[in-house]
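Let us work through a complete example step by step.
Step 1: write down the sequence.
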Amino acid sequence: MELKQMPKNTRGVQVKQIAEHLGLSSGTVSIVLNGRGDELRISRETQKIVMDTAREMNYQPGKTQKKNQKTVRKSDGFRIGVFWNLHYMGGLLGQFYSGFQETVKQYQIKVEIVLQPFEYDHLNAFEDAFSGRQYDGIIIGGLSEKDSDYLRENLFEMPIVLINQTLENYSSVYVDDYQTGRQCAELFYKNGHERAGIVFSENRSAASVLRYNGFAEECRKCGIQLKDEWKVSGPGNGIGGYEAVKQMLQCAELPTALFVQTSRMNSGILAALRDGNIDVPGQMEIIAYGDGDFSQYLYPTVTVLHVSVSEMAANAMHLLLTILQNDLHITLSKLHVTKLIYGESFQKKTERQDP
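Step 2: predict the structure and record it as tokens.
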């Protein structure tokens, strides 16, 4: 651990200054100073260095402030920060907010929800919010792989609930994305498909990477071709779906099955296939992942591996309020199981034997 020069004036030193001096995150330092290092498996060596440095820098914990803060929380309720990837600021956010509100209504306490957008791969810009006292708890949605790595490498004392991502030391509501990808490939195999394509949103979340990995691995096991030219991407909306599939249609040979990573792209995908004179489901069958509420109003209707985003949001808020109201120092999790909703784009046929 490389130490920076000790600040000359240590009067009123802050956690952030100790963290910068030691090259640690503010969250890790805060956890150690509050006596929770063993609980969150911070090494004894690191704990000793933090405590020794805090003494040398004349750190004062400010017990009165913490006591007053707890009193305010009990009487005035909770302030919840909802950190949301800018890429998902469309209609999907509205469904999540509806779920948050449904849960809040069930609690006899005031809950203030503050929306904080963040840019893809740049969640680390808000470390001060995670380590400070601005919020009582935080919910995070739309994590990229880099954002997930940032959380994995840092610890924060504040309770944080992740939506559709699982990380050690964090509470979460999630889908088994790897299994969902496998399930889609199995469905294609049982319908006799030997060539499959996939449509991604261009800003891929950590969850979508897991779905792809599960899909690709099961395709390999089943002997389904998944050529690189059949893996296309675009913005996660109808326009993005249209442009991505138009690109795929330039291929000399096309897949007979298509896995759509986000159902928000369905309308554009269907339009591109119509323009390319590709019959759905006659020449290409489609299964999409996401909220199936809107997919049933398309033509043809789309078969969806459905997960209710409003239900996930409701459960995320429930976990966080349970932790806050009961002052829990554990992580909680809730698994959501996808439901296969059949539309016209894919219908179950006579099953083949598993490979």
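Step 3: interpret the result. The first helix runs from residue 15 to 22.
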